[in-house]
């Protein structure tokens, strides 16, 4: 009985309860989106299946502790690189052309797996190992050692980033967010971080200004075609691109605005929203359940991020802390980008809303990342008991 009690104490019941709430919200949101008649498939049942698979992934993650994850990090990273390379060399029968890119492996007619969703977690594991090993080897911090660490982080991220940036800009941005979040907690001096990210901000702002006010300059001297700026133009002024990139954004804004305070009800959809059960599920939530429903969803994400942050602060393992930082950065950026694009705060990218949007790869990838968090609590408890008993 005592062993059972100890095993129960090692489970992160708070995080498990949060995931149950996400499943309920996801099921209700997807079911409501299906009332528009856009698809004949029952995606709620499929989402429930992927949640079960995610539960199996989390259970499997509990069998490994932080030391084992640290040892396996480079193997996982290597597998991720191989999977991303396979997208470029495999025949179209295995890697179909879908949504303008070769980003999926075809398992069956109805099952497609996007490896980049798992590579995010593999990258987090590898970066955490790079930083941990660097600090173990460099007990005395210097500017030179910090530059070396930054170079190691950059080289580690370069491989997967280079393999996806041309086909999947949205996922590439998630990778950049993960790297940025981990760098901020890596211990690198702000004397390096501020100038580097300040320079990146200036360069980015300059390019953005050129896109808006001098596109001919970019086309003439950098060879960039003007049509590639359509996503930015449609983001800033969607009503002049109603038949092109601005179509999705206009529909999303109409849905979010028409929901008002309490929404139109479960079956109250009046605005046609493409991909209402995936990338634009938040628009459907805002229309059907209004400001109140949207606020509940956002609050649930705040609770999740708070819980992950608390786990990072409570852990005594530096490696675990860096892993937590990567997972927090990944989920936070996903939420900010997905919700931001539905309300014109950010440009539209193909990034789903974590744990709520329908999608097997996305859900399994997030469950794998959260499985690492469950493992931290599980094995932290076991270490405590073994220490007490020694």
TrEMBL record:
State the Gene Ontology terms under molecular function. lipid-linked peptidoglycan transporter activity
Tell me the superkingdom of the source.
Answer: Bacteria
BP GO annotations: cell division; regulation of cell shape
- Where does the UniProt annotation locate this protein? Membrane
Q: Name one Pfam family in it.
A: FTSW_RODA_SPOVE
Its membrane topology = Multi-pass membrane protein
Q: Which InterPro entries match?
A: FtsW/RodA
Which parts of the chain span the membrane according to its record? 12-33, 48-65, 72-91, 172-189, 196-214, 289-309, 321-343, 355-374
**The keyword Membrane is assigned to this record:** yes
Q: Does the keyword tRNA-binding apply?
A: no
Keywords attached to this Swiss-Prot or TrEMBL record, sorted alphabetically, are: Cell shape, Membrane, Transmembrane, Transmembrane helix
Can you name a GO cellular component term? Answer: plasma membrane
PANTHER family referenced in this protein's UniProt entry, alphabetically: CELL CYCLE PROTEIN, PEPTIDOGLYCAN GLYCOSYLTRANSFERASE MRDB
Protein name per its UniProtKB record: Cell cycle protein
Lineage at the top is: Bacteria, Bacillati, Bacillota, Bacilli, Bacillales
